[in-house]
Structures are given as C-alpha cells and as structure tokens.
Write a sequence for this structure.
C-alpha cells in the first residue's frame, strides 16, 4: 500500500503523523512524507529589490527538508518503508499531483477544522483534496480532551 502523508508542520499535521504511526498498515507498505513549499512573492517590485528573496526561498526549502526528515525518522519504527518528498507550488494542487504521479492508494492529511467564514476566507486544503483526489483520503481531526 502506498500512503501519501501530507504535512505542513502544524499541530494538525502532527495529529496525522501520529495516526499514520499507530495504524496497522498492510505489508509491504510505503509511507511518503510530503510537504509543499509555496514561494513567497513580494507584493511590489521595489520589495523584491530591497529583500533577499532567494535567500528566504533557500531557507524555506531547508526547513521543508528538516521537517520531512524529522517526520520520516519518527515513522521508522513502523513496519512501512518511509520516503520523503518536497514539492513547490500551491499545496492543494501539488498534493493531488503527487498522489497522481506516485500512484498513492491513500492520502492522509490533518484538518485545521476551520468552519464558516474562516473556512470561506482561508479555504480548506483537506476539503479540496477530498474533492479532487485520485484515491481515498483519510482526514485526521484533532481530538479535544473531554472537559
């Protein structure tokens, strides 16, 4: 089974990592830890000259590498083979493209749980993936402690 674990470094993606680590995936399974880096683009040409955007871009890529390696190391205790991948672009599209290109059997994502206006304004990566994925999608929600 090919499991695409899409992460962004948030608490919600950590919930997805924990869920993947706890599941009894069939043997042989492969978990691909994926993060997507969006290039920060200055709003005005003057800002591009004033800032060192290439250095910032390199730092984003380095952080993405550290994140995927850290998560992959945490998943080494599972019976699954673990790989990492970094894509550049808009997360919704890149996760779908990676699932298609890699022929994933399932995509695992954490949900930020936005509702109402916040969801409308920010969009929902998880909802978009559910709507457009070429395979099954496992959306992990954060479990709140009982009061």
């Amino acid at each position: 089974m090919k499991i695409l674990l899409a992460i962004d470094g948030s608490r919600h993606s950590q919930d997805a990592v924990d869920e993947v680590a706890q599941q009894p995936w069939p043997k042989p399974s492969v978990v691909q830890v994926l993060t997507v880096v969006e290039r920060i683009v200055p709003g005005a040409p003057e800002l591009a000259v004033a800032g060192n955007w290439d250095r910032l871009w390199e730092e984003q890529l380095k952080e993405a590498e550290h994140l995927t390696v850290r998560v992959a190391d945490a998943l080494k205790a599972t019976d699954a083979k673990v790989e990492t991948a970094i894509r550049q672009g808009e997360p919704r599209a890149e996760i779908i493209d990676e699932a298609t290109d890699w022929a994933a059997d399932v995509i695992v994502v954490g949900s930020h749980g936005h509702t109402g206006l916040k969801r409308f304004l920010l969009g929902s990566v998880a909802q978009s993936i559910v709507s457009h994925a070429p395979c099954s999608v496992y959306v992990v929600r954060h479990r709140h402690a009982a009061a």
Notes: The chain is about 45% helix and 20% strand. Residues 114-123 have pLDDT under 50 and may be disordered. The chain has one domain: 2-140. Residues 2-140 form a domain with the Rossmann fold fold (CATH 3.40.50.620).
